[in-house]
Specification:
alpha+beta, flat, 272 residues, 3-stranded antiparallel sheet
């Protein structure tokens, strides 16, 4: 019986159109060049960077975007630190009140023991040894409170350690505004695409691109290897450049298998 190519009801296997309509299993989508961010685009607003700046790891962003991100993170860190200080102050206040209650209970117990006779005191001590009153503040175990205080202190220390400004790129890392440096892209007058100012070749998304921290010029990998590393200075402005001042700009590659991840996968169960 003839069948339509997109409505297979007589075959034991799915057609491509039927498999594409499924909502379960592993679905794979190939990523093309449109899904990749160019190396001269801001990783925060995803548009061509305006007044581009780079971090020491080579992540390029607009000057306004990166400083807004740093300021927003600093405000959030300050708010979190204030909340931690309030929680720590409340914990110290509770601990102080607990110590005062325990001291008052000990004084009351001492006064009561003085007024009793020796036999009554022995009987009272025997009763206390046999039936301890855990609801009395003086007899309340302090191990749990100490553990809670230690846990709170450890959590606060961990939060303070994590509370630092991060570069919100695909590979987050610690960031400081002092370590940012300006990046200068030279673009072709016709195509407006970035080019290497040394060899005048167009810089493709799959190419290895380096920025010089001392002057901000962006060069291709071949020019950096052949000239900059050999002479230890920029080929365009003759600024001295140490090897540690050469920063490789991060790139997401292209849609080809030779550069970058080319597939995205999503998995879902057939039955719930």
């Amino acid at each position: 019986m003839p069948r339509h190519s997109k409505n297979n009801t007589a075959s034991a296997v799915f057609t491509y159109a039927e498999r594409d309509r499924l909502t379960y299993g592993t679905k794979t989508q190939r990523l093309g060049g449109d899904s990749k961010r160019p190396f001269d685009a801001c990783f925060l607003c995803l548009t061509t960077a305006v007044d581009p700046m780079s971090c020491p790891e080579g992540h390029v962003a607009c000057k306004e975007c990166i400083f807004e991100s740093i300021l927003a993170q600093k405000r959030e860190i300050a708010r979190t630190n204030d909340a931690l200080e309030d929680a720590r102050a409340k914990a110290e206040l509770r601990e102080r009140e607990r110590e005062i209650d325990a001291a008052r209970a000990k004084v009351a117990q001492a006064e009561a023991s003085i007024s009793l006779t020796g036999r009554a005191r022995e009987a009272d001590a025997a009763k206390k040894a046999a039936l301890p009153s855990f609801w009395i503040p003086s007899l309340t175990p302090s191990a749990a409170a100490d553990a809670d205080t230690a846990a709170a202190s450890a959590a606060a220390a961990a939060a303070e350690k994590r509370a630092q400004v991060q570069c919100l790129s695909s590979a987050p890392h610690a960031l400081s505004a002092k370590k940012l440096f300006a990046v200068k892209f030279q673009r072709d007058a016709t195509t407006k695409k970035p080019t290497c100012p040394s060899c005048a070749k167009s810089l493709a998304p799959s190419a290895k691109v380096h920025a010089l921290r001392a002057c901000g010029h962006v060069l291709c990998d071949k020019c950096v290897t052949s000239f900059v590393k050999a002479s230890k200075q920029c080929t365009l402005c003759d600024t001295k450049c140490r090897p540690r001042d050469i920063v490789a700009l991060a790139t997401e590659g292209t849609g080809f298998a030779a550069s970058g991840q080319v597939e995205a996968k999503k998995f879902d169960h057939a039955f719930l």
